Amino acid sequence: MISITLVKYLAVGVLNAIVGFGTTFLLMWQGMSPELANVLGYVVGVCFSFVVNKIFTFESKAGGKKSVGEFVRFVSSMLIAWSCNFIVLKICLKAGVNPYLAQLISGATYTACGYILSKTWAFKKR
């Protein structure tokens, strides 16, 4: 059975994808390189994602220093997930995959890594 936390994470992920990919694709459309657009899209997405996942998905009540710790762990988790994403993006681009499709493929990698790290480390109840 699928956990409610996973369903919430995926729902937030859909919203985050709209925000992140929207930013990325808009920047690419304006002439920015796929790599730089990817970086900026994920920066916007991580900020959005922290707030929504903290409150809605993982229902964290942590405040003060504990909230700062969550933020640091979350950003660290997303940096790891983003690194995996970027590696996949570069592999796809080198293989001749359409840059827009490459963004979607690498985004799926980011989502899987991000969920695992968020659940098991960033928002783990302590």
Q: What would you note in describing this structure?
A:
The protein is mainly alpha-helical and 126 residues long. The protein is built from four helices and no strands. The protein is elongated, with a radius of gyration of 15 Å. It starts with a helix and ends with a helix. 30% of the residues are buried. The model has no long low-confidence stretch (mean pLDDT 92).
Mean pLDDT equals: 92
Taking the sheet with the most strands, its summary is:
none
Q: What is the helix content?
A: over 70%
Whole-angstrom Rg:
15 Å
Helix and strand string, N-terminal first? HHHH
Number of strands: 0
Outline, from the CA principal axes? elongated
Number of helical segments with 4 or more residues = 4
Our measurement of the CA-to-CA distance between the termini, rounded to an integer number of angstroms, reads 25 Å
How do you describe this structure in short?
With 126 residues, the chain is an all-alpha fold. The protein has helices at 4-29, 34-57, 64-94, 99-122.
